[in-house]
Structures are given as structure tokens and as C-alpha cells.
Amino acid sequence: MFTTTLGEAAQFAGRRFVRVALLPSLVFCSLLVVVALVGGEQPPSALLRTWRAQPVEFKALLVGGFLTAVLLVSAFLDSAQSAVLRYAEGYWGYLADRSFGRFGRRCHRLRLLRSADGSPQHLYPPRSRLHEVRPTRLGNVLKAAELYPQLRYGIDAVLVWPRLFPLLPEGLAGALATARAELSALLTRAVLACAFAVLGGAWVAIRSGPPALLLGCLWGGVLLAWASYRGALSAAVVYGQHVRVAFDLHRLDLLEALGEERRSDPETERERWKRICLFWHRGIPLHHETPPAESPRTAPDLPVAPTGRGISLTQVSLAAAVTTGLMGVLTPYV
């Protein structure tokens, strides 16, 4: 649902592009150039003398090529925001979903079941909907926000949200756009940090550069990616809360815009929303006498929380980065 609302920040398009894509790309490309120079065979002083000896035209060509690379990376990241968000939510290909996805879902189901009083509603889906658990923490935060209107009001958020957003007041729409831009910026930093760890570490290893530089590239990039992802979780929580507020306060405005009466009875409202969603999704007339039966609203018996500690994909990734760094440093001495 949330990957279809990139237009929410349209009024801030210029500033959003600079913050989300351009500045991170500039820092990323600059760090790669620094690593390529420092990790090479010539010392920085010799490289500086070589640079000064080049003609102005050649210097301008190099600077222009660097700026072009920055703009290309920025354009790619700006166009790939939807794909990055879906990947961060845990919507992967078949093979990855059957392996890493199953591993991640098991870990988060264990965490959800082991929580004494149930995990906070803004972090995970309800315990009665274990099949909705995603393999990543970010995916679970956004899934919890997506399920909120369905559980409270019988609203399919995927169908209703694009129609509700244009009716939101300017203040709430601006808050949603700001939270969405912050989430995109932090995910972009995480992606670039991972790319820097891989590219920078591989370059230093191939060129037999200093071990400290290898560890700095690999571990520094991974730690920055982890910190950015943690920040993205907080931004996703804020975004999800704004989405909940939008449905709580303005769902009736959408009914009024559709020419429907405001229903004070919760059960009548749920039935009306159910019929509207069926009409939008399947084309079933609003006054159809026998709509498909609704699933029982009583929660099933909760499974017993299993023992043992689940290991998350983040912990596995950090352990792999530490191991790779140590192997890269110790390999020349073996």
C-alpha cells in the first residue's frame, strides 16, 4: 500500500530530491573516490602532484565526469524508492522468500509470541494474524499500520488510501509527506552504506590496501547502514501513526464525498465499508443482497509461545560483516 503513495511529497519534490537522493549520492561518490585514491599504490602526495600537473581541460573533464556520476546515481535512487521500500519490507523473489524470508518470519513470530502482553500495535500485526508477519522489522511496522483500518473499521487500506489521501487537510498531508520523505532518505542512506561497504572493501582487498582501511570501509559501511535502518524504523512508526490518524478522523469525509450517509453505528459502518471495498475490488454492486460472508471476528486460540531465541536477519548480517572483515585482514598472514 505504502509504495503507491510516492506522490504524497510532490509539493516538496525539489527539496526531497536533494535530501533523499542528491546529497547522499554526492557523499557516496566522494567517499569512493577517496578510498580509490588512498587505497591505491601511489601515496596521496604523489597523486596530488599528478593532479596539479594535468591541464585545465583534463581536470574539467574529470570533474564533469564525477558530477555526471553523482547525478546518475541520484536519478537511479530517486526512481528506485518504491523498489527499495518493498525490499526493505520483505517482499523478495521466490527463492529469497523461501529461504531468508522464512527465516525472518520465524524470528519475528517468535518475538511476537514471547511478548508477555502482546507486542505494541505499532510494531507488529496482532497475535491472531501470525500469517501477516513480515520477515523484516520495517515490514512489520508498516503491515501493522496497514491492518489497523481493517481491524477497526473493516476498511481495506490498499483500496481506500489512494482515495482518502486527497481529502486530508494540509497539515496532516504535510506531516505524512515529511515522514515519508524521512523514511525514504534513511533507506537510501542504508542502501548506499551497504554499497560502499561492498565496493570500497572489495577495492581495498584487491589492491592489497591497508588493513585498517579495509575494516573502515567494511565495518564502517555496515554500521552506518544499521544505524540508518534503525532510524528508518522510527520514521516508519511515525508514518504509520499518521496513517492511523488519517483513517480515524477522515474516513467519514470520504463517505460523504462518495455521497454516503455518515453512520454512527460501528457495525453498520463496517458493513458499508465492506460493500464499498468489494465494489472497488471486484465490481460487486453496493446493494447486492448476498455479499461474501465475512470471516469470523473472534480471535482464534493463540499458539503457545515456543522456547528458544530467534536470530534476526540483522544479527546475521552484522556477524557476516565482522567475519568477512577479519578474514580480509588475516588472509595475507595465513
Structure description:
This protein has 11 helices and no strands. It is mainly alpha-helical. The longest helix has 47 residues, at 211-257. The N and C termini lie far apart (51 Å).
Short description:
The chain has 334 residues and is mainly alpha-helical. The protein is built from 11 helices and no strands.
Notable traits:
single chain, mainly alpha, 334 residues, 70% helix, 0% strand
Helices, strands, pairings?
Blueprint: H1 13-38, H2 44-53, H3 56-79, H4 81-89, H5 94-114, H6 137-153, H7 157-164, H8 170-206, H9 211-257, H10 266-282, H11 313-330
Helical residues, percent? over 70%
Largest sheet: none
Total number of strands:
0
Supply the number of helical segments: 11
Q: Rg from C-alpha positions?
A: 25 Å
Low-confidence stretches: 2-12, 295-302
Helix- and strand-based class? mainly alpha
- Calculate the terminal CA-CA distance, rounded to whole Å: 51 Å
Large-scale geometry: elongated
